[in-house]
Amino acid sequence: MHHTETVSGFAEIDLTGRSAVLCDLDGCLLSGNHVHDGARDFVRACGDRLWIVSNNSSDTSVTLAARLGGLG
What we know:
Blueprint: E1 21-24, E2 30-31, E3 34-35, H1 39-46, E4 50-53, H2 61-71
């Protein structure tokens, strides 16, 4: 069974029993160089279950890692 949900804030997300979490990067976790409220805690709570997806083709794994590292 696949479970898909849309939420308005990270606090609404119940990670119990989730083996994987897919999350869009731009607009969900970040907006430009702004990290959305709760995003860092959400990423920590997901751990290795989190798969970040993006349709931004201008980043490479190296530039994205540097960008995310700079944002903490």
